[in-house]
Each structure stands twice: as structure tokens, then as C-alpha cells.
Amino acid sequence: MEARPSYVLPHPITSPVSISHLLSSNSAPEGLESRVASAHLAELESQLAPLEKFMALCSSHHADLIKSIKAHKSILSPIRRLPNELLAEIFMLLVRDAFHDLNSDSGQISEYPWVLARVCRHWNVVALGTRTLWSWVFLDLDVIGDEQEAVAMTQLFHERSGNSPLTVNIVDQSGTDTSDVFNVVLAHAERWQNFSLTLTGGSLLALALDGIRGRLDPLTTLQIHAGMSMDETRFALIDSFTTAPNLTAVHLWVYDSNGRGNFCFPIPLPWSQLTCLSLPLASNEEALSILPQLSCIVELQMVFDGRTDVVPSQNITLSCLRSLEIKERAWDDPPSSFLLNCLTCPILKHLLTERANPVGAALRFISRSGCSKTLNSFHILLHPISVDDTLSLVRAMPRLLVLGVGDFDDGVADSEIVQALHSHWLSVRDNSETAKLSVQFMNGQGSGSKDGDFGALSKDGFFIDIDEFQELDSIIDAKYFDYMNVWYLNQ
Fold it and tell me: In this structure, which long-range contacts are made by residues 480-486, counting pairs with CB atoms below 8 Å and at least 24 apart in sequence?
């Protein structure tokens, strides 16, 4: 080990006897005392410089020791003993989470595999040998920069992913002409397993999708957010997804870029094989044309942008449906019971009606469907929020676990409603410690209860939350990511 300079501490510092008495008094020194004090002060100051130099050396040596300790601890780090397979799994989790994080910087999403590959030689070998690590292709054409570099990077992603199924997310919100980059992605359409496309008016990419027809056998999940005029949307997407034999999850959100609102369009899709569907509808007629074809649907979300007074001529049974969400785009839409009146869903577990459907229609739907013992999550708007209506709904669903009740016009749950629900809960709940009912009241003008805190009721497994009105949470909105997570876990 390298020799280090040493320092010998001097004898204990003591004051000369002739001036020590001055330290505890305010007396002025005389001639001899002044000379003794000056000489002693000079001696003390002479000891200070070498001591400071030695302290600096000690500080430097301390920093070197800390650095060396950290370096040698890394030799014993457990991550060095991880099998390559487990390290690759960790890499995949990091890249997948970054890919799904909507708040991530778009550039960083694509850079993660490269960063991992540059840490050390071992990580480089693992990253390059993990083909699925390069199968998450995120392409934000709005920030693409040098197109030639982007083409080369995109090609390299596809090469390193081998034959792995691809998860592709393409964003073009400024109508950029980056056909060369997009063509690289299109060339591998037969490997798409999950495909997400975000477009706005003026984008040329939708037109290029015509070339993927008949090449989508592996596709299981499709998400399209598009802002276009009706004509260009119909023309661009009319046949692109006609043949996709394994497609089961679709999330469509198409809106009119001219500001006329949301609309749906007749994209031919394999409706009968879909298990998860979320889409906007322009009218009841569109709903009636699609619903009878959804024979395998498990989770369904429909957002209505308009409505006509069409009365369904027949009842539509969705025997596999477990989650139904009915939303309407405009706050001032009048109450609608259209969908509840035409559907029968015998095994439904989750029902959300974001607008004020009549309580009677909901009760008839539950009775007709025979789903009273399967429904465990129910959300509805009531105006006003009344004891009778709320209790009638709860009584119709004996297995209810989550109840959401909202009134956009500032209706707030008072003690009468809460106590009535609590009493009913105590009379019907089982005696298990895990039994619980969560009730969320929402109002339009603010949060908080007008009648005090209901927290004490939680000891009975009865939970009350009074909050500011917000759009009811959808369990379907995240299904696009859920399906990709399931795909990853099955790899």
C-alpha cells in the first residue's frame, strides 16, 4: 500500500504562566507580558499550517478510501451473480414500463435498450442477445429529427428483435412526411402483435396502412386515436383491418378534426371474435348494427356522441359480457335508457352508466339479465341523489362491493342516505371479516361531506368517500396496456 505522510501531535497546548492570569481577566498586558503573548501566538500559528496541510491529505485519503470501498463492494454485488436470463427479464420490465408510461419523454423510450447495452460488456451481451428487448418499437414522428438516422435506428430495432412479435406505437400529430421511416415499420406488419396509432388531420400515414391488409395474422390488440375528416378517415382505414384472425382487443377513438365532435365509422372488423372493445358511436343505429355481432365480447365500452329515438326491435343477449360501460360525450345529454333496454347480460360483473339513466331502466335490466348475484361494481348518476333510489339499486345487487353515485348538479350525500345504506349493509352482509362495501358519492361543485365524517363506519366494512365530481374511472381504458402485459408474461 502506498505510504502516506504522518503527523505527530505536539504536546498539549498550554499558556505561559506569566500571562495565563490574563485569560480570565480584562486587564491589559504590560511590556513583558505583551512580548510573551506575541511570541506564544506566533508559535501557535506556526503549528496551524502543517496541521491544515495534513488534514487536507487526510480528506483526500478518505475520499480515495470511500471510492475504493464502493469499487470493491461492486465486485460482491448480487447483480453480478444474476443469471443472464433473470437480468434479461429485468431489462424487459424496465423497457416495458417506460413504453407504457404516458409521461415518459418520447426520446427516452426508444433510448432505453441502447443505454442498457452501453453499461458494460456483460450487459451489452445480454441486451443484444435479448431479442424481445428490441421488439417494443416507439416512433414519434413529431420529434424524429434526422430522418436518415431514424431510418437506420428503426431498421436496427427490427433486425435485433429477430422474429419476435412486435409491439408498435406510432405518433404523428403534426402531419409530417416521414414516409421512409414509416415504410420500415410497415415492412414488418406481419409481426405486429400490438399496434397503436395516433394521428391528426393531414397525416399521410393512414393512407399507407392500405398496404397491411391481409398481413395481420398475429395482431391481438389494436388502438387508434385519429383526428381527421370523415371522408379521409373512411378512405384511409376502410379495409386495413378486415382480416386479423387473432384480433381480440380494440380501442377506437376517432374524432372530427373539423370540430364537429366524435364519430364512429364503419371500419370492417372481426366483431364476432372481439373480447374487449371501446369505441365512440354517433347514433343508436350504429350501436344496433354492431352489438348483435359481439358474440364473444367480455368487456365493452361505448361512448355516444349523438342519439336518435330508435327503439330496438329485439333484445340482444351478450352471454359473455362481464363489464359494460355506457358513456355520453355531452354533459347536457338527456337521460337515456336505450342500451339498458335492449341488452341482456346474464354474467355481468361491472356496470357503469356515466350519464343519468333512469333507475327503473337499470333495475329492469338487472332483473331481465338475471345478473343480480354477479354484479359487484355499479356506477350511476342520479339527480337528485335520493334514499329510495339508492337503496333500490343496492337491494337489487346483493353481491355488490363497489357503488358509485354521482350528481353533477351538486347533489351531496347527506347523513340520511349514508345511514340508510349502512343499516342495509349491516342487515345483509355476511359475518366474514373480509366483507366490505365501498360507496363513492360525487358532486359537481366541490368535495367533502355536509354532515360530518363517516370514517367511523369503516369498522363495519362500510367505506364512504365523498369527492369532487370527475369522470368515472373506466376499467377498459387501460386494457390496451393490460393485453400487452399479458402478452409479455406469456413470452
Answer: 480/194, 480/196, 480/221, 480/223, 480/249, 480/251, 481/100, 483/194, 483/220, 483/221, 483/248, 483/249, 483/276, 484/96, 484/100, 484/167, 484/194, 484/221, 485/96, 485/100
